[in-house]
Task: structure prediction
Amino acid sequence: MIKIVVDAMGGDNSPSVNVSGAVKALNEIKNLNITLVGDESQIVPLLAKEKYDKTRLEVLHASEVISCNDKPTEAIKTKKDSSMSRAFELLKTDSDARALVSLGSTGALLAGTVLRVGRIKGVKRPAFCPILPTMRQGKTVGICDSGANVDCDSVYLQQFAVMGSLYLQKAYGVKNPKVALLNIGAEEEKGDALRKETYQLLKDTAAINFVGNMESRDLLSGDFDLVVCDGFSGNVLLKSTEGACLELMKLLKKSMLSSFKSKIGALLIKKKMYEIKDLMDYNNYGGAVLLGAAKTIVKGHGSSKAEAVYQCVKQAYNMEANNLCQAISEAITAATANNNQ
Amino acid sequence: MIKIVVDAMGGDNSPSVNVSGAVKALNEIKNLNITLVGDESQIVPLLAKEKYDKTRLEVLHASEVISCNDKPTEAIKTKKDSSMSRAFELLKTDSDARALVSLGSTGALLAGTVLRVGRIKGVKRPAFCPILPTMRQGKTVGICDSGANVDCDSVYLQQFAVMGSLYLQKAYGVKNPKVALLNIGAEEEKGDALRKETYQLLKDTAAINFVGNMESRDLLSGDFDLVVCDGFSGNVLLKSTEGACLELMKLLKKSMLSSFKSKIGALLIKKKMYEIKDLMDYNNYGGAVLLGAAKTIVKGHGSSKAEAVYQCVKQAYNMEANNLCQAISEAITAATANNNQ
Result:
């Protein structure tokens, strides 16, 4: 049995999407236990409407919620009866509790992980690794780090590469993931001091399939499985890509509704547009995992629907079922030994 | 009279687009002289087909071309008879030659500027500042630096802000441009050490209208006129935005042509789609200027058409006609004096 803790209060649509997403995962995966953490008076009535195996789900009461406006570290330390703090407490004290899924504050989740859960031995910094759809059918791409570490050195980036590569193999079944370094040109000598040093280190890292530099314009091409970067430029990459797609879709919609003729046209391509919207919908791709933490941590989008919560729980389950933390620990030890040779 | 040097050989469609774009600008702007630099045997026959005032256009022969595969600094130093090297030579020796427009290698243009033209007194680093369309009708946004300087300190970023802001005022008539700092969150305390230091410096810079941090997802919102960033993250921002828009438009096209019904729909919205394509077309927005160089340097897109070359020449003319270099020199001196108080 794998026990997963679900923060029932984080996110814009909590606790209803958190509860129904968690229950859906519970009903699908027989080898799963779930603890929902949050306000009982809200959670219990929602559960009453659902059908599920009651022996495999418990509720842990917490009266407070950490919001995105709270200062992360302070909130984890002072809002002791918040759903996220209680969830971390459970991870710390209950060895059976192996993973946490939350849609709450990214900063607080990072702070809680560092303060309460800790890192896998040998891992220098945990890193966020969200998965994005690409424009090639069925192909996704991971970005590691997408924002946990704004200041990085080359060994951090090497570890992001090793962890991200294992994650894609274990949680998504990607074989021999193509790992690229985010850079401002394709050639080996491009970039700043950090990129040049990292390039050489990645070339010598046996645990990964390093394919060289990637320019940001090629993120959605489907040619790469994992892009390695510092958290600052990774965040810029992730959010400008999301932002551009979103703004362009908005403009398209507005433009198509601006004349009678184009409205008719819009009706005829509606199905195709929904397919594209669906392809780009993060609800279908799970959350951003925090790789390198001693337990599995999955951060779902704040505006997630139940489907996304379900995907996050499944993702956390897959990671635990495939012993990702153990695999990362071994790979990091090997890479470090090789660096020191 | 303002004399502008046009590298006739740079770019994918040279020299035909370079020649016809330059001639179009010459015919429109009466106060303009142009020197086309490149292979006479190709340029002269193209000119023979055009109508223009022959007293205001000359051709300077150059037998070689610097390609994007050449090493920039080496190419400027050794390919002495290349169109770009000859163009820089002219800028250096002829005080009347005040600006250079090139579609050639970005690296070589940067190297040539540093080696042959030099910086405006007080400017620490020249920086690229391309202008992008936003999703709000008639609004554009500049990114400074988009890739000239991968390693930056806070004073560089302050200077990018001052130069970019003046550029938008002088070349595009933007009043009191809204200047934002690219960061991973909107709050003042966000980001790495560089961003925190720069934020404080920008707040105290009287010459600009600093409006705070901008997250990359908001680049195309139309809420900002100029985004200030180091060249590494600026390059990531620019290319991921361009890449995402391009990939999404490709996917839309493919998707709309995939069924009979959607093909009919596509026909009906064709006009609207072309409007959007037109809105996003860099051919309408001139080139990326290299701010802080002692003479005006404009880099057009390698795949520019004649219209884009025309826009680049007009842009260079506007910058010179409004004495941008002089204005930058004064503003940088004032900002530096204020920093040292």
